[in-house]
Amino acid sequence: MKSIVSFCLFASLLFTAGEASAALEQASLPPQQEERLVPANLELTFSGPVDLARSTAVLLNAQGTALPTGKPFLSGPEGSIFKVPLDPAMAPGDYTVDWRVLSMDGRSAEGQYRFRVDP
């Protein structure tokens, strides 16, 4: 009986660990938001740690052209905040963030959202 209980407990822990993946919880430039000041970094906060080497965030202008950004880096609890340095002199207009991350458990997540920089 102890063996069955131990096995069930072990199996439930494996299932729980397998379900963990990095889902986007918050963005420093929230979707559909209008900003007057450009922050130093685009910050994408995830529910779990992110693999920096296998994660990207691309900033696109209204014409769909990728814009230069700084080198991404991680911060926050266990590396769950993916940051991309931005040019503080970004022109007013509509922008799209196209992101893809790989969580430390090997699962990928991706998405896209838009924001506006006002004059």
Topology:
Layout: H1 2-19, E1 24-27, E2 34-35, E3 41-46, E4 56-60, E5 73-75, E6 81-85, E7 93-102, E8 108-117
Parallel strand pairs: 2-8
Antiparallel strand pairs: 1-3, 3-6, 4-7, 5-6, 7-8
From the helix content, strand content and strand pairing, which structural class follows?
alpha+beta
Strand proportion:
35-45%
- Using the CA coordinates, give the radius of gyration: 18 Å
Strand order, sheet with most strands = 1-3-6-5
Number of strands: 8
Give the C-level CATH assignment.
Mainly Beta
List low-pLDDT spans. 1-19
Provide structural commentary.
The protein is of the alpha+beta class and 119 residues long. The chain has a single domain (22-117), classed as Immunoglobulin-like (Sandwich), CATH 2.60.40.1220. The protein is 15% helix and 38% strand. It contains one helix and eight strands. It has one helix at 2-19, and strands at 24-27, 34-35, 41-46, 56-60, 73-75, 81-85, 93-102, 108-117. The strands form two sheets. Strands 1-3-6-5 form a four-stranded antiparallel beta sheet, with no helix packed on it. A four-stranded mixed beta sheet has the order 2-8-7-4, with no helix packed on it. Strand 7 (93-102) and strand 8 (108-117) form a beta hairpin. The longest helix has 18 residues, at 2-19. The chain is elongated, with a radius of gyration of 18 Å. The termini are far apart. Mean pLDDT is 81; it is low at 1-19. InterPro entries: CopC_dom, Cu-Rt/internalin_Ig-like, Ig_E-set. GO terms for molecular function: copper ion binding. Pfam families: CopC.
